Structures are given as C-alpha cells and as structure tokens.
Amino acid sequence: FVISSSISTVCLLCLVISPRVFLVSVLWNCGFLSSSFEFSSRKQITCNMVDVTDSNFEDIFPTFEHQLKKCSFVALDCEFTSLPFDVDIVPSFQDSGSERYKKISQTIIQCFPLQVGVSHFTYDRNLVEYKATIFKFNVCPKFFGLFDLNINLKSSSVQFLKTYNFDFNKVFYHGIPYLNQTQSEIVLDQMKKGILSERIFNIMTFDEREALAGHYETIRKWLHGIDVGLTLTIQVGTNCPHIKYFLHKEIRKCFKNVWTFHSTISSPELSVKRVSEEERLSLQVTSEFKIDEELLLSLRGFARVLDALISCKKPIVGHNMLIDLLSCYHHFYLPLPDDYRKFKTNLNSLFPVLYDTKFISHEMKRMEFRDVVDNISLQNLYMTFQDKKDLAFKPTICLETGGMYDKDGVHHAHDAGWDAFMTGFCFIKMMHFLKAAGNKSIEHYSNAELMNVAAPFKNKINIGRAFVPYLQLDGPDPLSSRPPHLVVSYINRSRLNLNHLDSLLVEVGTFEVKQLSPYAATVAAPNYHSYHDVIKKFSKTNDFRVEKYSILKHHKWARSFFIVGCILPASVTVWYYLKT
C-alpha cells in the first residue's frame, strides 16, 4: 500500500508539472517503458551501435577516442573481400608458425577489410556490470592517383556475405578511406616537395578541370572593385578532399590578394576572402600547412582508429584473430615484414595484451569443460553463454542506448560490429566461469580479478590445422603437440598408389599425405587418437608397412650426408695413417 501510494503521489505531481511527463510516468510504472539496461529479461535489447561511414567519421572519431580511453578492454572483428586460404593457400598439419605466417603474408595484400567492428567494454564498479558500445566502421581504399589498388572480391565471398545481408553499397559508396604509414610518408614527401598538386591535376577528369576553370573565372570577376575583408563562397561540387586541396593551393597561387578557408576538408564549400598584403603574409606563416595536415588526416582515415588502439594499449580480444591482426597490420600500419620473429616483436610492441577466445575455448575443452564449450564457433559460444544462466549468468553485460539489435543476434552474424560485441561478451563469460571453477557461484568478480584469470591465455593466438598448437606473440612458439609423422609403404616394395592409400585413410579420419618417394608416403595425423587408429588399421593388413618417420632413415639428403660424413673422415684418417 505504501509503495502504490508513493507511485500515485509521484504521478499526480507529474500531472501538475506537465501532462506529457505524467503520461511518461504512467507508462513507466505500468511497465510499458523500461530501462535499456535490463539485458537479461528483454527479447529486444537496445544498444549503442554506431554505424560509421566517410560522411560521419570525423564527427564520431573524437567520441570513439574518448570512450576508448575510459574502457576496460576492446573487442575486435573484421569482414574481408576474401580470406588468404581462398587464394591458392592450403593450411597444413605440418606448418610451423613461421611457415603459416609466410603463407598468409604472401596473400594478405589481396584480402581487403570491408568492415571493422570495435566494441568497448567498460566495467562499472558501482553497478558491478560491464557496459558495451559498438562501432562498426565501413572501410574501403579510395583511388588517389599515387595509389590505385586492385580489390580482389571473390564470388564465393560475395555469396557468403550476401547470405548475411551485407551492405556492399554502403562500403563501396561510403567506405572510410585509409593509408598505411608507408603510403602516408609518400604523400607527405610529395607535399614537402610541392609536387602533390601537379599529381592531383594529372588524375582529374575533364569535367573536374572544366569546373575548376569556372571557379577561377568566378573569382577573377568577383575581385574587380572588391574591398578587403569581403568573402566569396564557392560550391566545389564534390566532397573529394584531394580536389578541395588542389583548389586551395591553386587559388592561393594564382591570386595574390586572397586567402581560402573551409569548415572541413571534405565539405562541398570553400570560402575566398579578399585580404591585405600584411594579412596574407601572416596567414602564410600560420595557416599555409594546415591544409596539408588536414588532407593527410583525411587520407589516413580509418588508420587513425588503429593509431588510437596502439596509443591506448588496452587489452584487445578477438575470435580466431590471426587474419584480423595480419590484415590490420598490413593495411593500416605497415607492410608485413618478411621475418616472422620481427613481425611478432613489432606486433607485441603495438598491442602488448591480446586474447583469442577461439584459443581459450580450445583450452576449456581440454580442461574438461566440453559440455560448456562443445561447439566453439563464435555464434554458438555466444548462444551458449547467453542461455546457460545456471552456468555463467554473471557478470551483467549491458548495451548502452542508441540503436536496436535483436537479443539473439543470429541474423547479425558476420556483421563486424555485432561479432565484436559477441567476442567481448564470450570473453567476459568464459573468464567468470573459469574463476568460479564451474560452480554456480553467486559471487561478483571485479574486472581486475577476471583479467588475472585471463593471464595464462595472454598473447596466445589460435592457429588451426598446424604443427604448433598456437602462436606465442611475446616469446617463442610452443613445441608441437601433434603426433610424429608416419611413413607408409607396401611390404613388397612396389610403387605406392596414393589414391588407394587416400581411400583407406578416409575411413579413419582426416589426414595429410605427402609423397616421400615412388615407394613411400608420409602421413600426418591431426591428433594422437587418429594416429593410433591409423596404426591399428594398417597393422591388420598384410599389404602395408607403417613406421615412424626418421630423418636419418627416410630423408634422402640426410642419409646421403650421413654416409658422406662417415666415409670422408674415415678416408682422411686412413690416408693420413698410410702417409705417416
């Protein structure tokens, strides 16, 4: 009765203040309006998903930087035009970390990011919950005379992304441009030499040159009899930063009694002001190179997001993130180095703390939590930790107000923004589950406690179907956990029929077979279970011989070197003995 009376009093007070406020208060108390933070009990959740394009990037970037500095960690995800393993690259059970890196780095230049999702997760100590914000950046390299890149868009990738309603028009029409540091230095060098305007003029279309001639004529006529201080506004007719840059430079060069201004480098308007000789000299000192800086920032585009991530040194979480890391490094930072160890050193200096939820989920399966993380695809992990509230219903993760995503998120799969959120969500839930040791704990854990749980997984990046179990970014890669290779041959030493061998192995599992000689082949098994199954299968036949691979016995050059290494010293010894 006391509660209902209080609510009635509040509603009547609201009616006195404002009928509109009264209506809102009634709807709130009746349950029609509710807090956007009631994540667990609503089918629809509201979230702050910011869709970023070239038209709003400059407005949103300061907010992104501000929230980045406050957040506890960042989750990252990318969508690509294709994947390296789509381009004549076959991963192998026998790949070391260095070999896999070499395979990917040779083809990553053809795999352009189309979307980059960045989700900030901020821990609130007072509310004991995480708040998440999603930024979805649509990115696309733009033609800029000096740089005209071939974008390799495979039909299979198009079909795959179409299945998930990917908006190609938004990417190609409104994608944020970018230059890596090497490309930026080329532009900066041409600015310093004063030849960038000439390069821009050479790539202009006929219509663009005609429009420029019209602007010059308009300014020339306007200047007759105009007093100092008056301003002319020109509609440039394009938002291309390099056209605007060229106009600024050429107008200042052609007309010695004016100066040019604009609100932003990409705005379609440009102001021409009649100035005195003294004012122009002053502006040349204070503002001459401002337009250079603005153009370079505009061309750098999304690379500035990576610069911000590098500067803040926040922990970054990804799911199966090796391709994401290599692509971001190459396209937004520097071309990938040839040396694998140099790449790891450089990457670790840029991002000292990285976590891969795919690797963590593999480790949880080994820790006998298979019932929790049986299927380790990102979508399945998300559904598992969202639904199993008896296992990991804490901590609360709230999406801040500002947009709408369906709670289950299924139809948002392979949307880079939503995938980034799911990655961070799963990371928090897995760390809480491990901290609670699988018990139905009702205890709250701070962000620092969860990060302590994550420490054993730091900088370990999943590498599927390889000789090493993972890549260790801040040290040497671990020893292989794969079983030794087997050598299979016919007992009668006849030529080996690989098709026959493959047909037998398919009955057991997935293996990699390589021709060792006309009479033998190596068989690489993915795990010890399959390894023992192969030995058991061939031990029951009278046709095949199976043995462990030995470099000394089976490598043709090693055997030759061994023989030479034995014979040569012996021959020298005998010769020396006989001579003396």
Automatic annotation (TrEMBL):
Q: Name one GO molecular function term.
A: 3'-5'-RNA exonuclease activity
Tagged with keyword Transmembrane: yes
Q: Superkingdom of the source? A: Eukaryota
Q: Name one GO cellular component term.
A: nucleus
Q: Where are the transmembrane segments?
A: 557-578
User: InterPro entries per the record?
Assistant: CAF1_poly(A)_ribonucleases (IPR051181), RNase_CAF1 (IPR006941), RNaseH-like_sf (IPR012337), RNaseH_sf (IPR036397)
Q: Which UniProt keywords apply?
A: Membrane, Transmembrane, Transmembrane helix
Statement: the UniProt record of this protein carries the keyword tRNA processing = no
Pfam assignment, any one: CAF1
One biological process term in Gene Ontology: siRNA 3'-end processing
PANTHER family annotated for this entry? Answer: POLY A -SPECIFIC RIBONUCLEASE/TARGET OF EGR1, MEMBER 1, POLY(A)-SPECIFIC RIBONUCLEASE PNLDC1
Q: Which family does it belong to?
A: Belongs to the CAF1 family.
What protein name is recorded for this chain? Poly(A)-specific ribonuclease PARN-like domain-containing protein 1
Q: What is the species of this protein?
A: Lygus hesperus (Western plant bug)
